[in-house]
Amino acid sequence: xxxxxxxxxxxxxxxxxxxxxxxxxxxxxxxxxxxxxxxxxxxxxxxxxxxxxxxxxxxxxxxxxxxxxxxxxxxxxxxxxxxxxxxxxxxxxxxxxxxxxxxxxxxxxxxxxxxxxxxxxxxxxxxxxxxxxxxxxxxxxxxxxxxxx
Length: 149
Prior knowledge:
Helix 5 links the parallel strand 3 (74-79) and strand 4. The chain has 6 helices and 4 strands; from the N terminus they run αβαβααβαβα. A 4-stranded parallel β-sheet has the order 2-1-3-4. It has helices at residues 2-19, 31-35, 43-47, 66-73, 87-101, 136-141, and strands spanning 23-28, 41-42, 74-79, 118-120. It has a single domain (2-146), classed as Rossmann fold.
């Protein structure tokens, strides 16, 4: 039942914002989850995030590229199944959007994601990122709760 509520709410927000002619980007960490979202893409393909991400990683999006222009114009980013990915993915997107939004009138350096509205969806009590041969503290350290965001 929770899955239906979550997808209904996300779809309702997407439809409402798109009905005004604005852009909503729906992403999920896996291809299967992204198929459940309207015009969904994987986070790795949409934000050019490496599958083997580290603390120092930055998204491979040039500020003047078509991908950057799409991110600049988007009114909302809905990131489904967010707890499944490493905090470094969010931090890389935060840095990327900060660079892209820097010249926008809505930019605020004190707000996460360059003041872009990002909704992180998923069950934060249930699913954690997968860390190969990781100990409990490694897994906890990689969650979004351990991030500066």
